[in-house]
Specification:
16 helices, about 550 residues, SH3 type barrels, disordered N terminus, five-stranded antiparallel β-sheet, D-Maltodextrin-Binding Protein, domain 2, alpha+beta, eleven-stranded mixed β-sheet, about 30% helix, 4 domains, globular
Amino acid sequence: MTARANRRPLSRSGMFLGKGLLMALVLGAALSLPRSAAADEVTLQMTGSQVVFKGDLLGFDENSYTVALENLGTLRLARDRFDCVEGACPGGAPAQTAALSTGPDFGIHGSNTIGAQLMPALIEGYAETIGAKVVKRVGKDPEEVEIELLGNDGKKLSVVDLRSHGSGTSFPSLARGEAQIGMSSRPIKEKELTFMDLAGFLGMSAPGREHILALDGLLVIVSPDNPLGSISGADLAKVFAGEISDWAELGMAPGRINLYARDNKSGTYDTFNSLVLKPAKRKISPQARRFESNAELSDAVASDPLGIGFTGIAYQRNAKTLAIASGCGIVQNPSTFGVKTEEYPLSRRLFLYTTPNLTAPHGKKLLEFALSEDAQDIIVDVGFIDQTADRLPFSQQGDRLAAALGASTDSFNMELMRDATAALSNSERLSTTFRFRSGSSELDNKALQDVRRLARLIERNATRGRQFLLVGFADSAGPFEENRQLSLARARTVRSALQAVSGRGLSQGELQVLGFSEIMPVACNDSSRGRALNRRVEVWLR
């Protein structure tokens, strides 16, 4: 899959500078001056612009500031192009205080996958809706950014403390009250739920506390020069455990396999660990190179003909992706539709978690915007997968029939397969797919959000004259006919939920329910995750 985020986008406020423009604004190349331990921190803002640099002031004269910047080294910035607006401004420097921050109004902490590009883009999108300007201040740690929203008169509207140190950091920050929105690229863990309960924040996995922001898929990536096309989940686990260490063991030319992985704090690593390593009872090899940044990892793999790594779907950049083969013969290439249905084996949800401490008006409105239809284009532009409904004709889903025909005899019923083919062959499948809480007949949090989305789609009359089919399926556990009744019951649950949220009321004729038991698996039934994926209600349009 080709991601859209393989180059750094210009922000709407023009905050990011190309190298040529940056060097035109300095009086010389990076200097070799030593960084003083006693240097004072200052914030310099380009005159007439929202561009801000924050670093240690090493020197000042009538022509320039000499500043040590964390990522750019030591630079000399022209005094007639930059104003000192915060910190230890030297004597004679103009102090512009109108736009100074007085501390954050709310914090958004956690996942680097979300915080590196997606959350800043969403904040800018929200700012546009209220006619605000955005000022970003990057501190010494590039994963910590202060984002200020300014009105047209230059007055501060709100300040956001954005920290992107990994999903595992979000819940401690929420518990301490440092953050009111937590970013996580995997669901909250049981031990984190207990931790939050003890901190006084009960029910963090409940609707209203857990929000699905977007969808993502982990890509298994190699160099474009690598001829390998697919890899099984079992081999993938052995590779990253170091048990398969030479490409010859995968049918390629001999050469030592170089491993690239995210660091332990990241939700990307947690997801890979839970989907690939833990089911195979493996641990990641100590020989793997670890990265805090998805982008840096992807670039390193792309430039290494012997490398293999995993990253988020927004970070393919120049690398090549591998298809994933399951043990029961289902082979899945990463695709937008496959991620939206969550049937691509390495699909995942991106989450925002909130506490009752989210009282800042702009914090509440930002959350509402991030989960709205208006934010979906921003999610796509950054390179992630939005939650709007895509359509795919039955004729383009031959892998479904292949998986069905390859299932065990006990899971196959020719008569029911003919009925399913007759009902669906002239229809389009929507990517909206409803799933249920573990061990429950209740819709999960994503499904609850999708109920409202689908109801709005139907009410907009965008599909007038066509009928929606709610098609239930089951896993292979239990008797076939009993599973058929379960699949019908799941479809009826979705219909009732749609009727409950609809503003105009939806008739049973508009929403036909069908149940096809276990005949069209989308995953192997030999794992709890695979069985959970097969217990679903699909939406078809005919």
